[in-house]
Predict the 3D structure of the following.
Amino acid sequence: MMNNYLSILEESLRKKIQVLTNIQDYNQKQQHIFQSEQIDMDKFDDYVEEKGTLIDEVAKLDIGFETLYDNVAEELKEHREEYAEQILILQELITHVTEISVSIQAQEARNRKLVEDYFLSERANIRKGRQSSKAAYDYYKNMRKINNVSPQFMDKKN
C-alpha cells in the first residue's frame, strides 16, 4: 500500500516537472516576442493565458502532493530504511523541481524587464508623437495668421 502512495508522489513530481518545463518554454516564447523587431501583443497575451492554465495545474499538483504526503509522512518517518530508495528518488525529483522553479523565477524577472522597457519606449514614442503633432498644429495656426491680412484702410464712404 505504501509503495503505491510513494509511486503516486513520484508520478506527481514528474508531472510537475513536465508542467514547469512547459512554463519555461512559454517564458522563452515571450522573451522572443519582446526581442523581435515586430512585437505581437496578441501572441504575448495568448502565451500569458496558456501559462496561467499551466500555473493552475501546478497549484493543483502541489495540493494533491501535500495532501498525500501528509497522509504518509508518519509512516515514512517510522520506516525510513525500508523506503530509502524511493525517498531518495523523491528527494532528487524535489531538487529538480526546485531548480526549475528558480530558473522560471529568473526568466520571469528578465521578461518583466523586457515588458517594462517596451512600455517605456512606447510611452516615449507616444509623447514624441504628441509633441510633433502639437508643433505641426502650432505651425499651421501661425501660418494662417500670416496669410490672413487684416484690412489696412477703412473705407468711410457711405
Observations:
- The chain has a mean pLDDT of 86.
